Amino acid sequence: MSQPSAPLPYDDKNPLYPPPPGGYPPPPHYAGGYPQPGGYPMAAGYAQPGGYPAPGGYPHPGMAMPTMPMRFGDNGLGDGSHFQSVDWDDRKVRHTFIRKVYAIISLQLLLTVGIISVFTFVHPVRSFVQRNVAIYYASYAVFLVTYLVLACCQGPRRRFPWNIILLSIFTLAMGLMTGTIASMYDTKAVLIAMLITAIVAIIVTIFCFQTKARRGMHPALPSVGQVDFTSCPGLFCVLGIVVMVTGIITAIVLSFKYVPWLHMLYAAIGAIAFTLFLAYDTQLVLGNRKNTLSPEEYIYGALTIYTDIIYIFTFILQIVGRD
């Protein structure tokens, strides 16, 4: 028997059972659904043939989202740094820090001026100091040791009362050393040098107070026309090396033969350099710059500014009292 090449029309498929009038009723509803024409039921747990998981269904290989933000040390700078790359926003904390620093500096300068006055105006003391140069070397040794401890060791610098004790010893040693130097010069030259130093310190401080950062922007960004000395610490490191090398050369040359112009050149370089150092350290204390001191470093801030002022005085004294 030959097979038909095409199916019979629908009406002729089963002539014994013709379709009822109006067509067949829809099949009853069964839970789970029915196979679509030409397809198969969706089996639970199997993906569609040829399909892929929806975006986000599987994690990418080798990737994992952290559950907490990563931190590196304290504020990203570690425990040993006394600098901050971002200024503290609390004005009350900053103002308290500034007042504390300048209160300490005022006491240091009062003590130093008192020692210089005694060594300069009280003739028996002045004669005794001039005859006993060992006072200068002893005070210089104490000054150097205490300075290195306070500048390099964070523990003693931040731990009360050791920081106050060390700073007091440092100030006393610095005052004795400066008073010994002043006793070698004429009284008029000492007074002129003190006056010039005070004027320079006041001008630098006012300049640093007046130059504020932009309002409404990042505090580290300088305003138009402002000079941010804290943004170039490498330049000040080079400047310090230049002053040190110049001082060594001057000391060696003057030990063999006194050269007035070389002595004056070294004093002028030192006075200019420490005036710039004073501006740099003052901006570190005031904040609103690229770098600023931590609010816990009030001893370090007072130490650096006080040292800058005293060095400015000694260099100006060498220029004024050159005769």
UniProtKB/TrEMBL annotation:
Presence of keyword Acyltransferase: no
UniProt superkingdom: Eukaryota
Main subcellular location of this protein, as a coarse class: membrane
Record flagged with keyword Transcription: no
Bilayer topology: Multi-pass membrane protein
One GO cellular component term noted in the UniProt record for this chain: Golgi apparatus
InterPro entries membership: Bax_inhibitor_1-related (IPR006214)
Keyword field: Membrane, Transmembrane, Transmembrane helix
Subcellular location: Membrane
Region (Disordered): 1-32
Segments traversing the membrane: 101-122, 134-152, 164-185, 191-209, 235-259, 265-286, 298-320
GO biological process: negative regulation of apoptotic signaling pathway
Pro residues bias (residue ranges): 16-29
Family per similarity comment: Belongs to the BI1 family.
Protein name: Protein lifeguard 3
Organism: Hirundo rustica rustica
Lineage: Eukaryota, Metazoa, Chordata, Craniata, Vertebrata
